[in-house]
Specification:
alpha+beta; 4 strands; two-stranded antiparallel sheet; about 15% strand; about 45% helix
Length: about 110
């Protein structure tokens, strides 16, 4: 395989994976900080991505890439474990007179 073929394969891999990575991070439109990860960066989000994008992606070279693998890689690179929502341990709700407020601290520090 020459350099042009390697480059083409690399670009194709990026182009096929990018929509999945963008889907995981779409929730940044709602919450533009680390809390967006609670919505899709967990095992259910990974399975949902596989449902939306299909179980595998096949490159023109014939290489088959499992969608779950891309999702698990995204979640782990975002700082979480695929079985647990990223940052979920750092977010808790506090009931107030007005409603519910989200806080970003450890539960042990709740007043």
């Amino acid at each position: 395989m020459n350099n042009q073929q390697k480059t083409r394969t690399f670009v194709e891999k990026l182009a096929t994976r990018l929509p999945i990575h963008e889907w995981f991070d779409e929730s940044k439109r709602i919450v533009a900080d680390f809390r967006h990860r609670v919505l899709r960066h967990h095992a259910e989000g990974i399975f949902l991505a596989a449902t939306i994008f299909g179980p595998t992606i096949t490159l023109s070279t014939g290489t088959v890439i499992p969608t779950r693998g891309i999702g698990e890689q995204h979640v782990s690179q975002a700082g979480g474990r695929p079985g647990r929502a990223c940052g979920s341990s750092a977010i808790y709700e506090q009931q107030t007179d007005v409603g519910t407020r989200l806080h970003t601290a450890n539960r042990s520090s709740v007043p």
